[in-house]
Write a structure and sequence with these properties.
Pfam families: Ank_2. By secondary structure, this protein is mainly alpha-helical. The chain contains seven helices and three strands. It has a three-stranded antiparallel β-sheet with strand order 1-2-3, with no helix packed on it. A hairpin with a 2-residue loop joins strand 1 and strand 2. Helix 1 runs antiparallel to helix 2 and helix 5 runs antiparallel to helix 6. The longest helix has 20 residues. 29% of the residues are buried.
Length: 179
């Protein structure tokens, strides 16, 4: 009986896996480097929009986390729409149980938060810290009471009963290690 999934003579099936990984790596890199037009081309061209880094971060999470100037906001939003249109999971979770909406709220970009909510993002999901996305954008009172600060390379963890802070470290530079 002949195997149907056998590669044609002279073609290494590993090369297509490597090429797919290369394209996926470029998708992450283009988002992090704010080359949003390239990111759209890759996503529309079949790059795996459901791929994850070792931290569980997806291209959609990376786009929601990207800090952009106001002049690039439209392109960033277009990439987010493109990723969603091409099958990105709007409620995917990283290894800290953060969703794209958590990343958008941490980033503080109202336009991205609105896009995600209008497209079905679950506002009730808890992250590893027991926080809903809205916690990261809540009112001034919670900011004063707990002195929460969000850093680009870490997310403060605390509980409502304990004001001693510990930090769950995440390295946003992980996105750049895809070359």
């Amino acid at each position: 009986m002949e195997e149907r999934n056998k590669s044609p003579p002279g073609i290494n099936s590993q090369s297509t896996v490597d090429e797919d990984q290369f394209i996926t790596d470029k998708l992450f890199a283009s988002i992090v480097l704010k080359r949003f037009k390239l990111a759209r081309i890759l996503a529309e061209g079949g790059a795996d929009v459901k791929a994850t880094l070792s931290s569980g971060v997806t291209p959609l999470m990376a786009a929601c986390d990207a800090v952009t100037e106001k002049r690039h906001l439209k392109k960033k939003c277009e990439v987010i729409f493109c990723l969603l249109k091409n099958g990105a999971d709007i409620n995917a979770k990283d290894k800290y149980d953060r969703t794209p909406l958590h990343y958008a709220c941490i980033n503080g970009c109202a336009e991205v938060i609105k896009i995600l909510e209008e497209n079905g993002a679950d506002k009730e999901e808890f992250d590893l810290n027991g926080k809903k996305p809205s916690f990261y954008t809540e009112n001034e009172l919670s900011q004063k009471k707990f002195s929460i600060r969000t850093q680009r390379d870490s997310i403060a963890t605390e509980s409502m009963m304990n004001t001693n802070f510990s930090y769950r470290h995440w390295d946003s530079r992980e996105f750049l290690n895809v070359f």
